[in-house]
Amino acid sequence: MNLNSSSLLAENLNKTRDRDPGAQTWIILQLAIPVVLSQVSHTLVGLADTIMVGQTGNVTALAASALANNIFSLSIVFALGISYVLTPKISEYFAQKEILTCKSLLVNSLLNNMIWGVLISLVLGLLLPFSVFLEQPEKVLDQALPFFKLQIWSLPGIMLFQTFRQFYDGLGNTKPGMVVSIAANLLNVFMNYLLIFGNWGCTEMGLYGAGISNLIARWVMGFGMAGYFYFSQSGSLWKDSFQLSNIRYSTFLLLNKLGMPVAFQFLFEVGAFSFTALLVGRMGESALASHQIVITLASITYMMASGLSSAASIRVGHFFGLKDKKMILLSGIRSFQMVSVFMFCTAILFLFFRNDIPMMFIQNRMVADTGAELLIIAGFFQLSDGIQVIGLGCLRGLSDVLIPTLITMFAYWVVAIPFGYYLGLTLHMGPAGTWWALCAGLSVSAIFMFIRFLSLSKSLVFSEHDAPK
Q1: Contact of 377 with 436, CB cutoff 8 Å
Q2: Low-confidence ranges of the chain (pLDDT < 70)
Q3: 87 — alpha (psi -120 to 50), left (phi > 0) or beta?
Q4: Residues 50, 292: contact at Cβ < 8 Å?
């Protein structure tokens, strides 16, 4: 059976499992670079909004963007967590040449992801009337809520994209997601140019225009990825997946059993950052605008590290399917080393250019000075952030999701949030206090994730029958 280019790549991954660590670095990079570009491009949707809205000079609009994006990010990461479980499972079963199982995973994942996308959108719509309890400035809410309403209905489009992207990632073909993400991001920037500023005869809509751009770009992403699957040669093997016989309750249940803890992992982490935004919002719109600038930058480096995490998940899942204990450990350790080097470099950039970067977003000295202070703290937690996200990826590859979820909950909601409230509001340290608390939470998470991976990968037991030949 011809499994096309994805099969060829899988065979190459298999052949290189006994090579030196340098070979593993190159393989991980081959997988990670397209994912990194895709992740960063996805994050750049928010960055483009922040920069282009900031260029209007409207601090209220920038604060409103921060509020809406931070709340909406909770729903996005929860939904993404549901979808992420597909990649390591496809990698695991594809390594075993279980094609029928892969087909069942694909069709059930699409059904599951779309149900969750629509359900979360409906819940968010029902919660809108209760937004008055956010204790945010009224003029910020007046701009944030219309923008947020548009964001809500972009979620099913994201989930459509995620299904096919995660599927192809699991096959080792990470380029389609990159191409579609970049194209959609360019579309978003162009439409922002038209709708935020009212160029080329369009009505000047400000932040609301950015919301329309987001909505259209994310649905284009979804249909673009589905179109690639349907029309490309690489999808020919899998087109018969969408049959009623492949919809299985057991597979549907497995995806949710593994996906729900991953969703809560992301929810606990991003929820901590979003709750921090609410705390900072109580300190004033200038403080919230500074927070939005720096959290956007930190999100970019996080998403790049998350790309490496996805590659680690693919590699670990691949070797878990092959029952190759030695290569599980080697690929995981190599991923930790790579992310440490990368995040150290980003920390240096944050520290050295802390006074210049905020001025790229908005010409407001108070906002820029607070942003420079927060960039110092963001620089310090880069390493911890990278290590903990790689740990999550490696553990997903081993289908270990419950313990990492508990670690995440403890690190952010027992350590970071209470500590942040105490430093930021009780001791009146302002935004810096909440960010130092986030740094502490990330460090706790990083330490425990690394220990968990080492412990679990070394304790794996495979029978002689299962051992790689």
Answers
A1: yes
A2: 1-22, 40-47, 50, 54-58, 129-136, 461-469
A3: alpha
A4: yes
Nearest to 159 by CA among 79, 268, 254, 279: 79
Radius of gyration (C-alpha) of the chain in whole angstroms: 22
Query: How does 394-411 read in b/e, with b if 16+ C-beta sit within 10 Å?
Result: bbbbbbbbeebbebbbbb
CA dihedral (233, 234, 239, 242) positive or negative:
negative
Q: What is the mean pLDDT of the chain?
A: 84
User: CA 302, CA 42: separation in Å to the nearest integer?
Assistant: 12
- Pick from 293, 286, 281, 262: nearest CA to 409: 262
pTM reported for the whole predicted model:
0.79
Quick one: residue 406, left, alpha or beta (phi over 0 = left, psi -120 to 50 = alpha)? alpha
Handedness of CA 216, 218, 219, 221 (dihedral sign): positive
Domain ranges in the chain are 19-459
Judge whether 214 and 150 are in contact, CB under 8 Å: yes
Place of tokens 């690190």: 411
In angstroms, the Cα distances linking 70 to 296, 313, 357 are 10, 26, 21
For residue 12, the model assigns a pLDDT of 45
Question: Which residue type is seen at 334?
Answer: R
User: For residues 395 and 185, what is the distance between their CA atoms, to the nearest angstrom?
Assistant: 30
Token pair recorded at residue 199: 């160029």
Helix, strand or coil, per DSSP, at residue 110: helix
CA distance linking residue 265 with residue 89, whole number of Å = 18
Contact yes or no for 269/412 (Cβ under 8 A): yes
